[in-house]
Amino acid sequence: MRFIEAIFKIFPNARIRCLCADREFIGQAWLRYLLLEPSLSFRLRIRATDKIERNGKALPAKVVFAHLAIGESQQLPGDCRVWGNRVSLEALRLEDGDLLIVIAPPHTVGLVSDYALRWGIETLFGIFKTRGFCWESTHFTDPERLRQLFALLTLALVWSLKTGLWLHQLHPIRLKKHGRRSQSLFRLVGLKQISSPNKASFGLVWA
């Protein structure tokens, strides 16, 4: 909550479409905070064991959506409550059989499609951690050093992506049968180039 308030202090004119959060960020107090006026639009994933109140009954979400087949989704109509608060609610049965259950402010539609935008954040986490810069290996704990580190990593991230896009335009990355690239623009193309011992390999001259 303090983090959200700090963001608005730093960026008072920010226009936030919605806040997406995984199941670690759940609970009655958190939801009530987000529903305060002026409300902050949100898309929160809840657990399959969390109870949904409808028509005077409270049932676990996994029971309410037990009928969904893989790839099938449903948004519940009418009055729904989670942790005592009115919400919109939509669920999707994932390929592994798990349920993706998302809540949002009342009268919201397209919950699952909005929440899907969060996967880009997971990709970013991977880039900063084990699949890229491995920043956790620094074991930094000092806030000022961490701020400087993240500033440096942000520059390196943008540089890697720009380099990857440029090289992709010169030599397009092959697509696999499922339609995805055979190489990552960031990790296997951009990062590989900027971390190469041959630092002039793509026309940059270093002092």
UniProtKB/TrEMBL annotation:
Transmembrane segments: none annotated. InterPro entries: RNaseH-like_sf, Transposase_11. One of its GO terms (biological process) is DNA transposition. It comes from the Bacteria. SUPFAM superfamilies: Ribonuclease H-like. Signal peptide: none annotated. Residues 9-159 form the Transposase IS4-like domain. GO terms for molecular function: DNA binding; transposase activity. This is Mobile element protein. It comes from Microcystis aeruginosa NIES-44.
